[in-house]
Write a sequence for this structure.
């Protein structure tokens, strides 16, 4: 992506930024990357006291950080946190599929009602730009988490219809699975190998989109620069089979820890509640109203007139009308085990 330091500095220097879910895997990396560009203040908003304490200790000495305890379900607290903010990164969500499947009321309160609170508060607080962090599980969802994130996406997209004369834009980014994020399958595989436990594989032929944390944050920042309202930004990313990912992790991690690979056991546990055999990043309907560059897709809602799309396309780095019919992991060529090893190594190196 054509991200330059000058563009990023111009976007963030002296800005006041709020990151909801700011102590999570994505939120905390957003915060740390933002620090390079001297924003006036970054408010880190989270309901996890311990995670907030740990991040505060890690970033001790950074004077432009404010650590705020609160929950996006609490509109009054959110209003106070958002006062005089320029840019919001909305990363707060319940994200684990099985937990949301068994606790659907809680998923709705956070992912849907919490997002509505954020939108309502942004309108009255003078915010200029809202970037929502979404997921491939919001596309044709079959689980509670995906359904709530789809609703959150739609709330963010259609918030642009309510802005009137207000100078504010709402856009989303859609992630695949993020390597080495908190609770990611790679992290779980490595922990089980280290502890001598079997690796649990749901279904070896299951396919997933994969991205590294640096790629995820690059997408977020690129979206911030490009967003004019209504867009969903999607990174073109590699696809892996979960069975191949497990084999790659076993090969790489046992070598790093000097463990005999033959001692690692694999156990097939079957598809868990709410899981799909493949994921989608864009539906066939969305593809009709999408543009693409070499590295990303830009989806607009069907409610947007095609004439408006042509106008909105200006400045989208040579974006052209999307030629894809959809974007599903089942229709994409999967990485080989050797290619997955290279991806893991690159993701781990970038994170370190």
């Amino acid at each position: 992506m054509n991200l330059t330091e000058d563009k990023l500095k111009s976007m963030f220097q002296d800005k006041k930024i709020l990151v909801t879910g700011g102590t999570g895997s994505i939120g905390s990396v957003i915060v740390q990357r933002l620090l390079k560009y001297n924003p006036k203040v970054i408010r880190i908003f989270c309901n996890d006291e311990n995670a907030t304490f740990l991040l505060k200790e890690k970033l001790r000495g950074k004077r432009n950080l404010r650590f705020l305890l609160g929950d996006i379900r609490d509109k009054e607290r959110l209003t106070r946190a958002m006062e005089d903010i320029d840019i919001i990164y909305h990363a707060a969500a319940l994200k684990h599929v099985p937990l949301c499947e068994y606790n659907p009321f809680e998923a709705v309160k956070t992912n849907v009602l919490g997002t509505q609170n954020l939108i309502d508060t942004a309108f009255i607080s003078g915010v200029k730009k809202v970037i929502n962090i979404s997921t491939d599980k919001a596309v044709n969802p079959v689980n509670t988490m995906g359904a709530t994130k789809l609703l959150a996406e739609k709330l963010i997209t259609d918030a642009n219809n309510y802005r009137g004369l207000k100078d504010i834009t709402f856009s989303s980014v859609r992630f695949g699975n993020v390597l080495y994020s908190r609770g990611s399958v790679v992290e779980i595989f490595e922990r089980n190998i280290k502890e001598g436990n079997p690796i649990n594989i749901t279904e070896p032929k299951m396919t997933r989109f994969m991205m590294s944390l640096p790629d995820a944050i690059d997408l977020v920042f690129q979206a911030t620069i490009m967003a004019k309202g209504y867009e969903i930004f999607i990174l073109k990313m590699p696809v892996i089979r979960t069975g191949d990912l497990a084999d790659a992790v076993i090969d790489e991690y046992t070598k790093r820890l000097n463990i005999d690979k033959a001692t690692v056991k694999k156990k097939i546990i079957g598809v868990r509640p709410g899981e799909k055999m493949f994921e989608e990043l864009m539906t066939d309907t969305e593809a009709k109203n999408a543009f693409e560059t070499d590295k990303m897709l830009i989806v607009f809602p069907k409610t947007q007139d095609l004439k408006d799309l042509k106008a909105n396309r200006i400045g989208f780095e040579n974006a052209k009308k999307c030629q894809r019919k959809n974007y599903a992991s089942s229709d994409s060529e999967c990485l080989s085990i050797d290619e997955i090893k290279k991806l893991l190594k690159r993701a781990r190196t970038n994170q370190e």
User: Anything to note?
Assistant: The mean pLDDT is 93. The radius of gyration is 20 Å. Residues 5-176+211-236+281-327 form a domain with the Rossmann fold fold (CATH 3.40.50.720). DSSP finds 13 helices and 17 strands in the chain.
